[in-house]
Design goal:
The chain has 747 residues and is of the alpha+beta class. The protein has six domains: 185 residues, Hypothetical protein af1432 (Orthogonal Bundle); 141 residues, Beta Polymerase, domain 2, CATH 3.30.460.10; 113 residues, Ubiquitin-like (UB roll) (Roll); 94 residues, no CATH class; 62 residues, no CATH class; 76 residues, ACT domain (Alpha-Beta Plaits, 2-Layer Sandwich). 48% of the residues lie in helices and 15% in strands. It has a five-stranded mixed beta sheet. Strand 17 and strand 18 form a beta hairpin. Helix 7 runs antiparallel to helix 8, helix 9 runs antiparallel to helix 10 and helix 19 packs antiparallel against helix 22. The longest helix is centred in the middle third of the chain and has 32 residues. It is globular, with a radius of gyration of 30 Å.
């Protein structure tokens, strides 16, 4: 056996060991058969690094499926075989003949997701369509999604062999889609790793900085934990509990996200770690009661922070998560979050959906909100938005949202996304109630449809038979279900209006003795300022379209120039006062920018505003982690990699992404805004402006300072050359007495 064969065999032995240590039935022969088949099918193939045997990837995916998701032999076999149909000469029928219908069905689902080249439309994304197909598989088998998440995890773990532009695309797609999906399915450990890996590839310097600081503070955290844990252990031991207590460090991505969103320093993040207590159940004692007994024991020792209690034991999260969270003041004067959960609760928290169903089958747990979420996804997929990106946003709305609990007039509890409105609640009850909703009584007070609900509210929905969904309702709702139902209803209404309007236009053409053709319809629509016939017909039905007085004259040869002018204006090609003989723009007239995607695109000083522009949503400056996006007009738009809009672009239009590299910009300055907070003392403002102007020779464009009750907060807009200018400025200003925080923000 050569080194390569030995490597493969060792990995398979580890997989078998994981499987034999699980609670599943021992179908080793079946797993071995799938491994041998996959190994033979992928024989000679290598991973992207051109060194690693390809079979190592299916083995790694199978190990994630087995050890980290707790799935059984069917899923393990499907994971081993998941790339066979796509990458080799074998077909689904071969898998079915050798391994049966169920494994073939899962492999087929995975193949369709990976191999699809269908898209919603010319301007939409292949990735989004694949994600839609991924969700569709939930109707047949949830294991397709679980294996796909495992596949994405291993691809992220080996992303280093990819070129930078591909890394940005895959990392953003992971952060935008797969991490929230893992979160929704209860796979918290995998969700955290996906986030950290995405962060590592998108912001390598930021990741390395936080990782270094976490290692540097490790000993201090251990001392704090030991000091906190000693009296708690004594108390729990006296209660006769079997338990484990450990500190869980906040992930690098979570820390970075908090630093970015709050404009704070690493040193200011107080909740760097949480204490987790996992107990074994006692015979005859309810798990919920034990959670509260442990809570009582801890609060006898330490003072609790009342606003930080989270009871996920009585009301589990939608993904099945159960635990009791509390925050106490530790012996060293630091707030410490504690998570109390049973072994069963911990199993569900770590292994998510698979563990949820395992316990459900054992009649330990009833149907949860997870079942309802799957039903919601199914409803959305039955009437998907034809725009791929809108569809993606609709799905994502309910993946990562926090939750509130509200009540019906009869006292029944309903779970909604945080920020949900009265209209969301109406649609949660029934689509017909939502469509006919005119208002609500919240806690017996009349409120509008847009009223934002909070936990504990009691809501009664008011309806009217004459009511129908309005376009502005889309802006009122937070939940995916409500958005989908409104969107579907509006499209149905629009279709009905268009059909009625079309009949009126046909009658008009017939009366003018003009042939009813698609071409004539388009010319009339364009003349009236509409790009699409459907919009034109709707406008006719509503009485908004300004139809010409003499239709017949419009279609005469003499009116060609007038019609051409209206066509140009409707398409936005020329301003209203342009001359009629101005030539229409063509692709040949546009200067095409030649871009080599295999190399980093150089953001040089000379090319600024000619070959590339700065995105106004995030305003990157030289030195920022950035990437390029090729716009429809072939212009490169430069975004920060952390920009929310950019994350959407990278995850949806991967083929347009460019890796970029800043060159020096010594002669140019860029706009940046600093946020400064501190104690309001005499002369502090003068000190700040003097340092900026004199020591750094930086031009201040705008200064806005507001002081209240002895504390000031201000924003300073200035022009700098690069990120280094900002960093040096922040360090210097932070040294000023009474300055508490300095950070860059997007203005």
């Amino acid at each position: 056996m050569n080194d390569e064969e030995l490597l493969i065999q060792n990995e398979f032995d580890k997989l078998l060991n994981d499987y034999l240590n699980s609670n599943h039935r021992r179908k080793v022969e079946r797993v071995t058969k799938a491994f041998n088949f996959a190994k033979q099918a992928h024989a000679g193939a290598k991973r992207r690094d051109a060194i690693t045997p390809y079979i190592m990837h299916p083995l790694a995916v199978a190990r994630v499926v087995c050890s980290r998701m707790g799935l059984g032999s069917t899923s393990i076999c499907a994971a081993l075989l998941h790339d066979v149909v796509e990458d080799t000469e074998y077909e689904v029928v071969d898998i079915r003949n050798m391994f049966g219908d169920k494994i073939a069905q899962i492999v087929d689902g995975l193949t369709k997701i990976s191999g699809s080249n269908e898209i919603f439309g010319e301007q939409n994304s292949i990735q989004v369509e694949n994600f839609r197909k991924l969700l569709l598989t939930m109707n047949s088998d949830i294991r397709v999604i679980l294996i796909k998440i495992a596949d994405r995890l291993h691809n992220m773990q080996t992303l280093g062999s990819m070129p930078p532009a591909k890394q940005y695309k895959i990392a953003s797609e992971t952060l935008f889609i797969y991490a929230p999906l893992a979160h929704r399915l209860g796979l918290f450990a995998i969700k955290t790793e996906l986030e950290d890996l995405s962060f590592k590839y998108e912001h390598p310097q930021g990741y390395a900085s936080i990782d270094e600081k976490l290692k540097a503070t490790e000993k201090t955290r251990k001392l704090l934990f030991d000091h906190f844990a000693e009296p708690v252990r004594d108390k729990l031991d006296k209660m006769g509990l079997t338990y484990e207590m450990r500190a869980r460090v906040k992930s690098a991505y979570s820390i970075w996200n908090k630093i970015q969103s709050k404009g704070m320093l690493f040193e200011d993040v107080y909740d760097l770690y949480a204490v987790r207590i996992i107990f074994e159940p006692l015979s005859g004692v309810d798990e919920k009661n034990l959670c509260w007994d442990i809570y009582s024991a801890i609060t006898d020792i330490y003072r609790i922070r009342p606003d930080r209690i989270r009871d996920w034991v009585s009301h589990p999260k939608s993904n099945g998560y159960q635990a009791l969270h509390l925050t106490v003041m530790g012996p060293d004067g630091q707030w410490i979050e504690i998570q109390i959960r049973s072994r069963r609760m911990d199993d569900i928290a770590e292994k998510g959906f698979a563990a949820h169903w395992k316990y459900k089958e054992n009649n330990v747990e009833e149907d949860t909100e997870l079942d309802k979420w799957l039903q919601t996804i199914t409803e959305i997929l039955e009437n998907p938005n034809p725009n791929a990106l809108d569809f993606l946003d609709t799905i994502k709305m309910n993946l990562f949202s926090s939750e509130i609990f509200v009540f019906t007039p009869k006292g029944d509890i309903k779970r909604l996304a945080q920020g949900a409105t009265a209209l969301d609640f109406a649609y949660a009850l029934h689509s017909d109630i939502g469509n006919k909703c005119i208002g609500a009584k919240v806690n017996h007070h009349l409120e509008p449809l847009s009223y934002r609900l909070t936990s504990g509210d009691q809501i009664e929905i008011l309806t009217s038979h004459s009511q129908s969904p309005q376009p502005e309702w889309i802006n009122f709702v937070k939940t995916a279900k409500a958005r989908t139902k409104i969107d579907w209803a509006l499209r149905r209404i629009k279709k009905e209006d268009a059909e009625k309007g079309e009949k009126k236009v046909v009658a008009l053409l017939k009366k003018a003795e003009i042939e009813n053709t698609t071409s004539n319809m388009d010319r009339l629509a364009l003349y009236c300022g509409f790009r699409k016939r459907e919009d034109f017909f709707c406008s006719v039905e509503k009485g908004d379209a300004l139809l010409p007085d003499n239709i017949k004259k419009l279609f005469s040869k003499k009116s060609d120039n007038t019609l051409l002018k209206h066509v140009r204006q409707a398409l936005g090609m020329v301003p209203t006062n342009s001359k009629e003989n101005q030539p229409l723009p063509t692709e040949e007239n546009k200067e095409k920018l030649k871009i080599d995607k295999s190399k980093p695109y150089i953001l040089s000083e000379e090319a600024f505003n000619h070959n590339y522009i700065i995105a106004q949503c995030c305003k990157p400056i030289p030195g920022d982690d950035a990437f390029g996006f090729i716009n429809d007009d072939n212009t490169v738009v430069v975004h920060k990699r952390s920009c929310p809009i950019a994350i959407r672009l990278k995850s949806s239009f991967g083929e347009r992404i460019l890796s970029t590299k800043w060159s020096s910009h010594n002669n140019m300055s860029f706009e940046a805004t600093l946020e400064v907070k501190g104690i309001d003392t005499l002369g502090v403002l003068n000190t700040i402006t003097k340092i900026i102007s004199d020591e750094f020779n930086v031009n201040i464009q705008r200064l806005l300072i507001e002081a209240k009750d002895g504390v000031f907060e201000g924003k300073i807009k200035l022009r700098v050359h690069d990120v280094e200018d900002i960093q040096r400025l922040c360090v210097t200003l932070h040294k000023i007495k009474n300055i508490k925080s300095v950070g860059r923000v997007v203005d």
